[in-house]
Amino acid sequence: MLSNYRPWSAVSPGSYFIAGEKSDNILVSDDIMLMNDQNISETTSGTVAFKVIEEVKNN
């Protein structure tokens, strides 16, 4: 029943990740933080995910 259900957590599931593609938006913890490509300018979703994870680890 829920085979197509993909819950959002820190970043989009890996199945949707395309390396090197610019992300249109990044969803963090439901709708707390939405960032479009005007905010992150040429930053790939993978880089942003890494920075978010590092920030969490360091705090």
Strand content: 5-15%
Structure annotation, total helices: 2
Distance between the termini: 38 Å
- Structural class assignment: alpha+beta
What is the molecular shape? globular
Work out the oligomeric state of the chains in this entry: single chain
- Count structural domains: 1
Q: What is the overall pLDDT average?
A: 55
Could you give the count of β-strands?
Answer: 2
Element-by-element helix/strand order: EEHH
Portion of residues within helices: 25-40%
Radius of gyration: 12 Å
The largest sheet is: 2 strands, antiparallel
- Strand order within the widest beta sheet: 1-2
Any low-confidence stretches, pLDDT <50, length ≥5? 29-41
Task: Give me some keywords for this one.
single chain; 59 residues; globular
What are the SSEs and their pairings?
Elements: E1 25-28, E2 33-36, H1 37-40, H2 45-58
Antiparallel strand pairs: 1-2
Structure report:
The chain is α+β, with helices and mostly antiparallel strands. The protein has one domain (14-58). Helices cover 31% and strands 14% of the residues. The protein is built from two helices and two strands; from the N terminus they run ββαα. The protein has a two-stranded antiparallel sheet with strand order 1-2. A hairpin with a 4-residue loop joins strand 1 (25-28) and strand 2 (33-36). The longest helix is centred in the last third of the chain and has 14 residues, at 45-58. The termini are far apart. Residues 29-41 have low confidence and may be disordered.
Short description:
The chain is of the alpha+beta class and 59 residues long.
